[in-house]
Amino acid sequence: MPCSINPVKADQCVFVTYAGKMTRVDIMAARYEANELLSMKRWNRIVVNIAGLQSTPMTMELIDLASDLSSDLPPSTRIALVVRPDQLKDAKLVENVARIEGVLLTHFLDPDMAAFWVKQSPGKI
User: Fold this and answer.
1) I want to staple 62 with a disulfide (CB 3.0 to 4.6 A). Which of 34, 50, 92, 94 is the partner?
2) Which is nearest to 61 in space by CA: 22, 34, 100?
3) Is residue 82 part of a domain?
4) How far is CA 29 from the centre of its chain?
5) Is 45 among the domain residues?
6) 43-53 in b/e burial notation, b at 16+ Cβ within 10 A?
7) What is the value of pTM for the model shown?
8) Within 13 Å of residue 54, how many CA atoms lie on the same side as its CB?
9) In whole angstroms, what is the distance from residue 45 CA to residue 3 CA?
10) Is 72 in contact with 41 (CB distance < 8 Å)?
11) Per-residue pLDDT tens digits for 63-122
């Protein structure tokens, strides 16, 4: 499967990893599943890793993904977006747009740093 969704109880976090070739429909289906898990468990942390996608999503697709991830979630949700170096320019734009919309989204090149950041409480950053 080109996407894995892994809820980690110890971290109260959902890790979503996209890989290979995925259509927009596949990406959105995974997003709905991840949001449902977060809501059901009442967690507010998610790491979304798009570094493994074979094709780089268009900037607007990334912005839509960030907005959609937060649309059904509480404002306190922390979203860490993991990208490749060639996705960095778009990731910065997505982060800026998300923050304007009130979403706490930060991008990372390193999945371990993303996981560390998303697990921190806002006062510890």
Assistant:
1) 94
2) 22
3) yes
4) 14
5) yes
6) bbbbbbbbbeb
7) 0.86
8) 5
9) 18
10) no
11) 666 666 656 677 788 999 999 999 898 889 888 888 887 888 899 999 999 999 998 865
